[in-house]
Design goal:
CATH architecture of the largest domain: Up-down Bundle
Order of helices and strands: HHHHHHHEEHHHHH
Low-confidence stretches: 128-134, 150-157
Helix content: 55-70%
Mean pLDDT: 76
Strand content: under 5%
CATH class of the largest domain: Mainly Alpha
Shape: flat
Distance between the termini: 51 Å
Number of strands: 2
Number of domains: 3
Structural class: mainly alpha
Number of helices: 12
CATH topology of the largest domain: Four Helix Bundle (Hemerythrin (Met), subunit A)
Length: 221
């Protein structure tokens, strides 16, 4: 029984990561994953297949609830401390590397010097951007929705849209198709996708946004 439970929980690890990424900062991912795992475990303990609901759908509010509780209790303080410490290190490294290179160092050069991922450098440098709450109001097609509403929308898309989407994906270039396949069909994280495609996490993020905009424009046409 315990083996079956572990298999189900491990199978849904990527669901935790995908929800954690909605909160917007790499500095909290490890903590969010840990509390998300608690939510996933609680969902399993309370799940009954007779509910007629997919386990991932049933587990979603449990995971989000634990993450929101964690965010309320921390209120960004841990992130702020981590960013502040890293920002100071980046400033010192930037001065040192600028003297060595006789120019401003790139994000990658700073990342190599400090032995941290490039995307973390990027996040720290742009740390003035506030952490986005999953309940933060955003606009889409003139309507006010929240990030919570945008997670898992694929399950609510009608058949004709899915067919049209599949056709547009088939027209993408090989790299774009591979990226979309890894992210949305195999449910890989951006970091995992970056390793598979031989790119940086920042490159995957930027490329992904461009491809999504392209697909959205095609479907809207």
């Amino acid at each position: 029984m315990e083996t079956e439970k572990n298999a189900v929980l491990n199978e849904h690890q990527n669901l935790i990561y995908s929800i954690a990424h909605q909160f917007g900062s790499p500095f909290l991912l490890e903590d969010l994953f840990q509390v998300g795992w608690i939510g996933l475990n609680n969902a399993y303990n309370n799940y009954d297949a007779s509910f007629g609901t997919k386990f991932s759908t049933y587990a979603y509010p449990y995971i989000v609830g634990e993450m929101k509780k964690f965010m309320r209790e921390n209120q960004g303080m841990k992130v702020s401390r981590e960013i502040t410490k890293l920002t100071l290190k980046i400033e010192k490294a930037s001065i040192l590397l600028s003297q060595r290179l006789m120019r401003e160092p790139t994000f990658q050069e700073l990342a190599d010097f400090l032995e941290v991922p490039e995307f973390v450098i990027s996040e720290a440098i742009h740390s003035k951007e506030t952490i986005r709450s999953i309940d933060e109001p955003i606009k889409e097609d003139g309507k006010i929705i929240t990030l919570h509403d945008t997670v898992g929308q694929a399950e609510r898309v009608d058949l004709n849209t899915l067919i049209a989407l599949r056709e547009e994906v088939s027209k993408l270039d090989p790299l774009e198709r591979s990226l979309i396949c890894e992210r949305y069909m195999k449910d890989q994280t951006q970091s995992e996708t970056a390793n598979i495609l031989g790119m940086s996490q920042v490159q995957v993020s930027r490329k992904e946004q461009k491809v999504l905009v392209k697909l959205k424009d095609k479907l809207a046409a």
